[in-house]
Amino acid sequence: MRPTQAEDHLAAAPPPVPRPVPPPGPSGPTAADGMSAGARGAPAAVTDVAAADADVPAAVGRVLDDVLAERLARARLMDPRFVRELAGPVGHFTRAGGKRTRSQLVWWSMRACGGADGTSADAALRIGAALELLQTCALVHDDVMDGSTLRRGRPAFHTGVRERYAGAASPARVARFGEAAAILAGDLALAWADDLVAETALAPWTATVVRRLWSDMRTEMVAGQYLDLQGQITAERSLPRALRSACLKSALYSVERPLALGAAVAGADAVTTAALCSAGRCAGLAFQLRDDLDDVFGDPRRTGKAVGGDIREGKPTYLVAVALARAEAASDRVALAVLEGALGDGELTPEGLDDVREVLVRTGARATVETRIGRLTAQGLRHVDGAPLDPDAGGRLRRLLTAAAGTAAPAEESCGPEVREVRR
Length: 424
Fold this sequence. Notes:
Blueprint: H1 3-12, H2 49-54, H3 56-76, H4 80-95, H5 101-112, H6 118-146, E1 150-151, E2 154-155, H7 157-164, H8 171-198, H9 204-234, H10 239-266, H11 270-297, H12 300-303, H13 309-313, H14 318-329, H15 333-342, H16 350-362, H17 365-385, H18 391-404, H19 417-423
Antiparallel strand pairs: 1-2
Helix pairs in contact: 1-10, 3-4, 3-6, 4-6, 4-8, 5-6, 5-10, 5-18, 6-8, 6-10, 7-8, 9-10, 10-11, 10-14, 11-17, 14-15, 14-17, 15-16, 17-18, 18-19
């Protein structure tokens, strides 16, 4: 299968669309007696929509501050050391998170679909905060699985624990303890994320859709991560397999599902939700392909992690799959030898990584992936432009999707006047 065909198959595959949420009405999402049973004790909506529009990451941060303060206060009643060494660092890691792109996608999807009341806004921010906690779980566990020592320019969670307990036992036992503690930290973040979603005030039908999306998203994350790990151990690096793994572990979780969650909170119809899911599928794949490039060619000062991790782990990325396919087609034995020797070599030197970069450029793999990113981004933006969205919020959403892909909006793409204004 050619790269273009494989990519189009996944990008164009119709995403699962949640059951349409009935429009607000006497018994709709704003009705007090329509809240789900699990959310009756949740605080009343107090979100200032205009203030959140002005700074979504800050609004999500305030929710996280409140939620984590309450969780940590309860945890202190259990054991102070647990809070000091595990629960507290989990909260700090989450609050000091990155760009909060996923939570911004939830918010602007909700706003683009017409959500404007305090109840919808409050729910969107809480779900966004839950996604930040889920991201903490994913990153902490991912660093253990990949053996990464850095995250966001600082020691990874398990590395920090190992350094704190250096000398307490043999290096091997301390390293194992650090990994075990990180697994528990990720589990705690996941539990808090699930609690936050379960306690969010939603009308029963909205709650059903949101919780189904949340459940599917968590399972997709695990499936994608397993395919990634299984590909490393078996050295299976076909183009379709690489794209499938990227779709499950990143495209759905990072973009498509957050957009669907925001649409569900706003009560969007099936047509609008499907358009946003299709846009998210394309932009999410572009996001992962950009991450693959950054792992090899990125600047650690910008990415916050060491380069070459995917190569040293032997990850079956799309970038590597393209390079292998092109080298095989050209009978380029030198390129094949470099790639096969470097993939999975945990001791790969900087000079060896330079050789890999040269092969990725010479075979045209880097340029091919850049082209795919641009085409996927353009395709995703066309889905956004074709959806009946609020113009202002839709423009913000469009800009977010473009930024997630790490590329400029395609100049040749047709768009309305409000989108052209955003590009300036």
